[in-house]
Amino acid sequence: MSVQRVWQRRDLQPHRVERFKLSRDPHFEEKVRDVVGLYLNPPDHALVLCVDEKSQIQALDRTAPLLPLRPGLPERQTHDYERHGTTTLFAAFNILTGKVIGQCLSRHRSREFVKFLNQLEQELPADLEVHLIMDNYNTHKSPPVQRWLRPKKRQRFHFHFTPTSSSWLNQVERWFAEITRRQIRRGTFKSVRELEKAIYEYLAAWNENPKPFVWKATADIILDKVRRCKELYVTEH
């Protein structure tokens, strides 16, 4: 109890562990300022979309029916399950409105990403510039994607890449956490079709009352925290 009281006075929580990873990207500062600049000061007459894919979403069916929640007891699932295939969710999160454009595809190769880009081109207003924030996954920089960008009509699309090992800079990752927690993780699906139906239902419900995420940290604040973290742990970066 004496140890516990000392921890409480000092606001120490030794039972909690958080993980972090420092980016080794040589252009880290440049990319942070670029992405955060779009968040805090988005350009006029343009859309800023955070884009990524949530791959290998499994259609899992429990081996026994769920036990519903009861007073004092949470909903219960069996620990084992049956797999019925996977799907990949491509999503573009509008930082100003919170609306999400999504598409489920069987895989996450260049051809699927180009197919998703075609959907964005069809759904977005043709008179606006489009800034897409994404990570450094090879698919996003592949030759088929570069060929898709070449026509003059697509020069309004601008790609911005987050630093390596910095997925926290992409706001669509926060939305992926929402759909995982609220729809996917707790669901049971007997087929990929059922899984995709549940994903599209969540998309429709979200877009009825979308909520953007509020970004407050400036690039200087982020860079200062990273610098102090490196100094604290005496890294070689």
**Form type:** globular
Strand content: 15-25%
Enumerate the strands of the largest sheet in spatial order, edge to edge or round the barrel.
3-2-1-4-5
Task: Give me the number of helical elements.
Answer: 7
Q: Which structural class should the secondary elements be placed in?
A: alpha/beta
Instruction: Outline the biggest β-sheet.
Output: 5 strands, mixed
Instruction: Just name the CATH architecture of one domain.
Output: 2-Layer Sandwich
CATH superfamily of one domain: Ribonuclease H-like superfamily/Ribonuclease H
Look at the structure and give the CATH class of one domain: Alpha Beta
Termini gap? 42 Å
**Secondary structure: number of strands:** 5
Question: What radius of gyration results from the CA coordinates?
Answer: 21 Å
* CATH topology title of one domain: Nucleotidyltransferase, domain 5
H/E topology pattern: HHEEEHEHEHHH
Query: Which whole number gives the mean pLDDT?
Result: 91
Which regions have little confidence, pLDDT < 50, spanning 5+ residues? none
Set out the fold topology.
Blueprint: H1 2-9, H2 28-40, E1 46-62, E2 81-94, E3 100-105, H3 110-123, E4 129-134, H4 143-149, E5 157-161, H5 171-184, H6 192-208, H7 219-233
Parallel strand pairs: 1-4, 4-5
Antiparallel strand pairs: 1-2, 2-3
Helix pairs in contact: 2-7, 3-4
Task: Summarize the structure in words.
The chain is α/β, with parallel strands linked by helices. It has helices at 2-9, 28-40, 110-123, 143-149, 171-184, 192-208, 219-233, and strands at 46-62, 81-94, 100-105, 129-134, 157-161. The radius of gyration is 21 Å and the shape is globular. The mean pLDDT is 91.
